Amino acid sequence: MSENPKKLNLKQRYKLLTRGLDWETTYQPMDKVFPFDTFEGIKIHDWDGWEDPFRLTMDAYWKYQAEKERKLYAVIDSFAQNNGHMGITDARYVNAIKILLTGVTSLEYAAHRGFSHVGRHLRGVGPRVACQMQAIDELRHAQTQIHTLSHYNRYFDGFHDWRHMYDRVWYLSVPKSFFDDAMTAGPFEFVTAISFSFEYVLTNLLFVPFMSGAAYNGDMATVTFGFSAQSDEARHMTLGLEVIKFMLEQDEANVPIVQRWIDKWFWRGYRLLSLVAMMMDYMLPKRVMSWAEAWEMYYEDAGAALFEDLERYGLRPPKYADIATKEKNRLSHEVWSIFYNYTHAAAFHTWSPEDNELDWLSEKYPDTFDKMYRPRFDYWREQAAAGNRFYNQALPQLCTTCQIPMGFTEPDDPTKICFRESVFKHERYHFCSDGCKDIFDWEPEKYVQSWLPVHEIFKGNCGGTDLKDVLKWYHLNDGVDNMDYEGSPDQRLWAEWTANRSKAAE
User: Fold this and answer.
1) Which of 46, 164, 262, 505 falls 20 to 30 Å from 102 in CA-CA distance?
2) What is the pTM of this model?
């Protein structure tokens, strides 16, 4: 009688389920079948050198995700049945998750598309399986975010046509251009951009503020989505670190290429996160921490340790990381000021901070807020009280690279707008920072094609040249989805609910 075969350990089982699935092509050369993984200059000598630390196989993946789905949808159903939207701190909070739905959910779907594409074009079966797993994760995240946030669409404005808005609304061109840039790069640059620079280096600055902010403000449906996604994010971060180390260990010629990508995508990701900085400091009725505190915790401390570890591969910290650190005490104030100016063309509301909120900002930003920003907010509040709520009727100049209005200041002079320019083929292009200018100057042929909303409005390509025509083209309900929170339908509805609850409690 033959002996029973020895039970395979996890590593052996994972290898059988993710290796040996590929073959050397015969009637077509491999370089024709996989044309994209060589043109960037990355040299890979041993594709089997790829290791996935989680070793998650497809059968385990479905079981694991199904259990998370069961728990998530139970909470979503309970939230809806118990009118969970009435348990949030204040209806102003809802504007934060309007940004989450319109600005982040579409990025999850773009990530799904991007990783599906990359999974097809990396000839090594190990990274290909890892990318295809992440593609499924990203699709699930998009779906669960939509389902989680759809409850709010029943009661609050601005959620109704988020997918249409993603392709058209001016401030949504910021996240859209970020992912369009990544998806039109080569496969190794894409995974460096998304898996490492964003998922590993910066993702805690996106997900932790949104989910902890949701918890502090009574939004348990969004919190539960965050918990459901966070275990996936842990795998994504590991993929990001693994792909960087894999490239660096394969050939030393890969080091300068990877370094250039890290410099670029750190800065692009950081500029994208300026929306999160604004949300943390201004849009949460109950605040968790300031943007400056989050930056210190999740980048200055964690990032410093990461790049110390990667130093042995020849990598240094991202270029201009020191500039981002200099900006931590003013970033959120500058971005909130931009949106306060232009909220009449946005699908969410802004407002004048209340006294206790101004005091909180003074406490968190003792060196900058009272001196440079509080007087501005005091003046705007006085004007609003007098019936002169300020809306900027001029269209702003945009940065060609990040597509954010030119509202950021010089690194060493927060009283002066930062302005850079480059000339390419006799055309002049404008930038909000040295980081964005550097990105353009490295590959200008790509960024001269930027779809800049203000330019397109002036060309008449956005429904017309009148604001009402543009808002109609956006599918934005003028006077409902936009303008100041005070006096909005959302504010009036919340006031009515609050009054009814007070009467019921008497």
Assistant:
1) 262
2) 0.94
